[in-house]
Amino acid sequence: MGYDVAMIAHIRGIVAMKGEKEVVLEVGGVGYAIYATADVLRSLPPVGQEVLIYTYHVVREDAQELYGFVSAGEREFFEMLLAVPGVGPKTALGILGLAPMETLRRAIASGDHLYLTKMSGIGKKTAEKIIVELRDKLGAFEGVATSSHDADALDALMSLGYTRDEARGALRDVSDEGDVKTRISLALKKLGSAQHK
Q1: In 37-85, where do the E strands start and end?
Q2: How far apart (Å, rounded) are the C-alpha atoms in residues 39 and 29?
Q3: Within a 10 A sphere around the Cβ of 90, how many other Cβ atoms?
């Protein structure tokens, strides 16, 4: 609570460092630490190369934080999540890191709170708030079954002994097409397992 938004819309700079949760861009001798999802961090060029990152700048009483995105559309979705009561920047970024943006939009538009709670670990009340606040704004999407497929596949992979993060990461890397069995099989291959049917 207690933060205002300052408008730093984007930063173009040299990638100085990439960590697990943030990237440092050097601009005119100043290094800007920018929090980002794993997918965004993977998409960035190697250290020493220039990149443009869309940003959202949060000013708190005790700190300033920058959040980074590959597109203005992704930043806009982040801002929509922030408008939901009880959802702060870190939570919104965590939700964005779960799956491709269209998959998340379908889950919200279809009212699939189970998907949001299983995939992110956020509580049921927060997931329901997100759906109530954003459902109408996002509109209807085709192929809403994808979100429930992911939730079922996540359960199956965790029952095989994989952690939530491992299973979630593998599902994020496979195609949205196919039924639950197909997605599990593809995810197992990603996880380097011989157990795929």
Answers
A1: 50-60, 64-69
A2: 27
A3: 13
Q: Which of 1, 35, 3, 4 is nearest to 18 (CA)?
A: 35
Q: Angle at the Cα of 167 (from 177 to 95), degrees rounded to 5?
A: 80
Cα separation, 134 vs 83, whole angstroms: 9
- Please give the domain boundaries of the chain with CATH numbers for all domains: 3-69 (2.40.50.140), 98-197 (no CATH)
- Phi/psi at 89 (5° precision): -60, -45
Q: Of 38, 35, 80, which Cα lies nearest the Cα of 53?
A: 35
- pTM value is 0.68
Dump pLDDT digits (tens) for 7-46. Answer: 788 999 999 999 999 999 999 999 999 999 988 999 999 9
- State the pairing for strand pair 3-6/30-35: unpaired
